[in-house]
Design goal:
Elements (H helix, E strand, L loop, with lengths): L7 E4 L2 H19 L4 H4 L8 E7 L2 E11 L2 E9 L8 H15 L4 E7 L3 H6 L3 E9 L2 E9 L2
Parallel strand pairs: 4-5
Antiparallel strand pairs: 1-2, 2-3, 3-4, 5-7, 6-7
The structure holds coenzyme A.
Length: 147
């Protein structure tokens, strides 16, 4: 029988957890995917809402929401390699919807890496525009209007 990973998704709590989230982003984006550090750390983290997935004190995943008027810019979604394909990113996308509504916004936009597009398709995002390169990685813009 396969063990099911028990975790919770919620807002980041405290400086230590935020540091762990930034470390995970560094490992995933800069080390694993080769994104330059100056692009990963774009200076906007201080104004963002950060969400995390945590299991038994271990930080498994993170993402970031930037409220810009009625729109939320969703980004920096990273799941620890050994915790992937267990629905954690999907759970963070669901929480992002809830946080968007709670913050008074109704629309989310993001740049999806094309290899993972089905993640966002399944969460109700629609593509807009052409495929483009960002940080050397193929992306497509996607958006979701909340009912
Ligand atoms: C992409 C990423 C966030 C997905 O996280 P995850 O927790 O594994 O995603 P989920 O388990 O919720 O996956 C849900 C669905 O998304 C799709 N998906 C997820 N990872 C995928 C992959 N590597 N390749 C293709 N489809 C993928 C699948 O349809 C999957 O359903 P399935 O497992 O039943 O086939 C994770 O692989 C990651 O951190 N990658 C490196 C960083 C990155 O690419 N971030 C996204 C930037 S847009």
């Amino acid at each position: 029988m396969t063990d099911v990973l028990a975790y919770e998704v919620r807002r980041v709590r405290g400086e230590e957890e935020m540091a762990a989230a930034l470390e995970l982003r560094h490992d995933v984006f800069c080390v694993e995917q080769g994104v330059p550090m100056r692009e990963e750390l774009d200076g906007r983290d201080g104004e963002a809402l950060h969400l995390v997935a945590v299991s038994d004190g271990d930080l498994l995943a993170t993402c970031r929401l930037l409220f810009v008027g009625p729109t939320v810019q969703f980004s920096r979604l990273a799941v620890r390699r050994d915790a992937r394909r267990q629905g954690i990113a999907t759970a963070l996308l669901k929480l992002a919807d809830d946080e968007t509504r709670a913050g008074g916004a109704r629309r989310l936009v993001l740049h999806a890496q094309t290899y993972a597009r089905s993640l966002y398709d399944a969460a109700g995002y629609l593509p807009r525009g052409r495929v483009f390169m960002e940080a050397g990685i193929e992306h497509v813009a996607m958006e979701k209007q909340l009912p």
